Amino acid sequence: MKAQRILGSTAVGVGLGTLLLPAAALADTTVSPATTPVGGTVVLTTTECNPANGDALFHITGPDRDENVRSTTAAAGGGLSAELFTAGFTLGTYTVNTTCGDGSNGGTATFTVIAIGATPIGGAQAGAGGRHGDTGVLVAGGALAAAAVAGGTYVLVRRRRRATAA
Asked: Which strands form 66-70's sheet, in the order they lie side by side?
């Protein structure tokens, strides 16, 4: 009976982890590329906003910026996007907070402006970003997956010991 209970708990943990991890991994707002030289162009995209509700507003803040950029096109995978030309930007990391046309939160992302010809060392991958709460969901999903693996291992070890003892 205990083995059935453990297997049931394991199945629930794996199921919840499977459901939670993919949703948490999807970023709502992305910046591509995540690193660009001064004078480069980045594409700001939000998949959270519905184009039918109006334009998205990308609010860029950083070392020398506090400006808004309005979405200009519907994104290929759904959502809205805009291009941002970084001429005149100071070197550093910038944050993009997105507000959808209906006033809802469209997500957050960051990008880094580097010197022309500089090679980023350990920079964020393209599309890095997402909502602030995503980390907790990822941790919870990882904990559930780890519990499932530990439970499965425990059941296998118990069965092996019983078979050896008999």
From this structure: 35-37, 105-114, 92-99, 57-61, 66-70
